[in-house]
Specification:
Pfam families: DNA_pol_A_exo1, DNA_pol_A_exoN, HRDC. With about 400 residues, this protein is an alpha/beta fold. About 50% of the residues lie in helices and about 10% in strands.
Length: about 400
């Protein structure tokens, strides 16, 4: 295995192209009978199960899965169509107690959960790579650096809602789980050799136990370019256009950005278009848009303009955390000094341990600690603060001494 801290003195051997799955491309599971066979096969398999999912981000509404790939010793590889087989709870139950191996688990778990699949235990090969100190942690880079194989990654951003799925796409999807368990085993060995395996296991357990994220409050506030919108009436225009776009996108099952771009929404909020004809002159509302569509958007704008002052959206809710660090020197010089000392200590320790700073302790936790530290600033109080902030035991153990020292060395 290539050392995570690759040296420039030895050129690694050229990776071997991985062109086809070992047992060939399996047929897509798209019927109750075929799905029952997959459930039985994976229940009878052994060892960890490699799991991946493909979405149609940028093409379809939401983040649902359009293909689920699995591989397990004794069961081979399965490609499941969750459109034809929308309820995968039986498969999840068949894998009860089995460790799932995913790459960048937090990306796939929401869409898998939507289909009825949730792991009891998992191993995240991307996160393992970060903790082991790899500079590049994409699946292709990890498979190449750790196992010596080259994966073809040309279909990662295609429209996976396409039916039937082309054979090259299915080959790509099958190969994504082909070596995932092998990668897991190699990374476990690397983490154990570096004394980091327990850290990784704590991280994986936290991901598996985390509840689904709650729905966002006022999601329209996350419109790209929203920082340009200063007035409440303009905010109302953004809200009305965003909600209309979302409703249309949901009904059409297309990505909202394909209905109307964020940039067009923000531009329309800043311009006082009196009618649909004037709206058509704005970027994003051009000649391809029919008159009926333009009138629909203009009606939303007109409605925003008619909202009583008292019902206009307020500026975003006050952030509950500390102010931006750039303002600390003026607002609280002592806190700024604490943050500077803490950041330097975290950076030095992360470099010593050969892992990213944000994996050692989240920057937000450090900022909150330095802005409002415990009254006595003792190691015990700092440890409790970190635990309450969600830090894992290994993070608390490693960072409590250095953060306590940073707080103690400053006012």
């Amino acid at each position: 295995m290539t050392d995570a801290r690759e040296t420039a003195t030895e050129a690694p051997p050229a990776p071997v192209p991985l062109l086809d799955p070992r047992e060939g491309i399996p047929p897509v599971t798209a019927s109750p009978e075929a799905f029952a066979d997959v459930v039985a096969a994976f229940a009878a398999g052994s060892g960890p199960v490699a799991v991946d999912a493909e979405r149609a981000s940028g093409y379809r509404y939401g983040q649902r899965a359009y293909l689920v790939q699995l591989r397990r010793t004794g069961a081979g590889t399965a490609l499941i169509d969750p459109v034809a087989c929308p309820d995968l709870t039986a498969l999840s139950a068949a894998l009860d107690g089995t460790e799932w191996v995913l790459h960048a688990a937090t990306q796939d778990l929401p869409c898998l959960d939507e289909a009825g699949m949730r792991p009891d235990r998992l191993f995240d090969t991307e996160l393992a790579g970060r903790l082991a100190g790899f500079a590049r942690v994409g699946l292709g880079a990890m498979v190449e650096n750790v196992l010596g194989y080259a994966l073809e990654k040309g279909h990662s951003a295609v429209d996976w809602s396409t039916r039937p799925l082309p054979e090259p796409w299915l080959r790509y999807a099958a190969l994504d789980v082909e070596l995932l368990v092998d990668l897991r085993d190699a990374l476990e060995e690397e983490l154990r050799a570096q004394g980091k395996l327990e850290w990784a296991l704590q991280e994986f357990a936290a991901i598996a136990a985390a509840p689904p994220p709650p729905p966002r409050v006022d999601p329209w506030r996350r419109t790209s370019g929203m920082h340009k919108v200063r007035r409440r009436r303009q905010m109302a225009v953004v809200r009305e256009l965003w909600n209309l776009r979302d409703r249309i996108a949901r009904e059409r099952d297309v990505s909202p950005g394909r209905v109307l771009t964020d940039a067009a929404i923000v531009t329309a909020s800043l311009e006082a278009t009196p009618n649909a004809h004037a709206l058509a002159a704005l970027p994003g509302f051009g000649h391809r848009m029919g008159r009926r569509q333009l009138e629909q958007w203009q009606a939303a704008i007109d409605h925003a303009r008619s909202i009583p002052e008292r019902d206009l959206p307020q500026p975003g809710p006050a952030y509950a955390g500390p102010p931006p660090p750039r303002a600390w020197a003026d607002k609280d010089p002592a806190a700024a000094a604490r943050l500077s000392a803490a950041r330097a200590a975290v950076s030095a320790l992360a470099e010593q341990l050969n892992l990213p700073q944000e994996n050692l302790i989240t920057p937000d936790t450090v900022r909150r600690l330095c802005w409002a530290p415990p009254r006595d600033r003792s190691g015990e109080s700092v440890a409790v603060f970190l635990q309450d902030a969600g830090a894992r035991p290994w993070q608390v153990e490693l960072t409590t001494p250095i953060l306590t020292a940073a707080l103690s060395a400053t006012p």
